[in-house]
Amino acid sequence: MMRLSATFTVDLLPGELLPAADGRFDLSKTWTGDLEGTSAGLMLTSGDPVTGNAGYIAIERFDGVLDGRRGSLTFHQLGTMADGEPTLEYVIAPGSGTEELSGLQGMLSIERIDDDGTHHVALELA
Fold this sequence. Notes:
The protein has 126 residues and is an all-beta fold. 0% of the residues lie in helices and 71% in strands. It has a single domain, classed as SO1590-like (AOC barrel-like, Beta Barrel), CATH 2.40.350. This is DUF3224 domain-containing protein. InterPro entries: DUF3224, SO1590-like_sf.
């Protein structure tokens, strides 16, 4: 098991609503640290985050360098919040890696989010 650390900033832009979700967002991220590059993706939301009860799914394609290896891979996310308690599953989609990132498997966890929106993450590779 290898553990890497990185940060990212994210921009969310509301997108055209879809019948299956309460909200749709296009996302773009800039990554630094052991992951250097950019990613772009799509997020769908449902529920009422104001009351602490909501969920989202997202898929994003990362392009760049991970621990010195170049390529792309896809992350998929499943986030829920019930009675204000969040849970998050954030994994590398199996088979999504290209070039030197081919075959990678792992999970990403968010360790903290700074006031300026910078997310500090850990990526555990299998």
